[in-house]
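Good morning,

Attaching, inline, the backbone tokens for the sequence recovery test we're adding to the shared suite. The designed sequence is right after.
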């Protein structure tokens, strides 16, 4: 799919005017347990960019944990809250880790894809099952009785639809994935840096999931 560029204005040091600087964000998508938050922090360090986790944006916007929203409001309400939070966020060249359920929202994914390169961190259901031991408490959007394999089968076509880059992430040590991904991204990102004021660095969410 086509990827748009996010353009910012920056003061020119010589003549006091302004120039347009082209900046892309990196949008990490994938299943819960695929390593989006962990890879995102490491990739942000590698590429010298800020890191944002949209699960944290939801929690900051609502003042509630993800699992609490699911338990009290239900899945449709959670997905609406997630979509609203993502669409309200304006990426400015950051590394962005998204919730696994964001791909259910066409509006949210179009917004993210317009501002950056979507990267799918791909894992088999066997790997995900080894990593996920707290499905009922970590804020994962799933229906009763839905297994990790079922969830992956449902979401995989959506992840692949939006992905510009797909990176297998079955490594026990994420450093290898980060190096491979950084090498693939650098030609797309170029050597520019975000010109707008840096967004706060948001680290591991309190209840990562979705």
């Amino acid at each position: 799919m086509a990827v748009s560029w996010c353009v910012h204005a920056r003061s020119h040091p010589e003549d006091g005017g302004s120039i347009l600087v082209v900046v892309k964000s990196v949008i990490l998508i994938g299943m819960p347990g695929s390593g989006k938050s962990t890879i995102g922090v490491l990739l942000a360090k590698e590429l010298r960019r800020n890191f944002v986790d949209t699960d944290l944006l939801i929690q900051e916007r609502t003042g509630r944990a993800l699992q609490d929203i699911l338990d009290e409001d239900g899945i449709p309400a959670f997905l609406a809250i997630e979509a609203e939070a993502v669409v309200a966020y304006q990426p400015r060249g950051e590394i962005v880790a998204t919730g696994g359920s964001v791909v259910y929202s066409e509006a949210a994914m179009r917004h993210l894809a317009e501002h950056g390169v979507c990267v799918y961190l791909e894992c088999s259901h066997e790997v995900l099952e080894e990593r996920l031991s707290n499905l009922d408490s970590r804020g994962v959007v799933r229906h009763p009785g839905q297994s990790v394999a079922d969830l992956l089968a449902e979401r995989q076509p959506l992840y692949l639809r939006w992905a510009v880059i797909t990176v297998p992430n079955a490594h026990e040590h994420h450093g290898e994935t980060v190096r491979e991904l950084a090498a693939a991204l650098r030609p797309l990102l170029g050597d520019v840096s975000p010109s707008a004021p840096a967004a706060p660095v948001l680290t591991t969410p309190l209840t990562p999931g979705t």
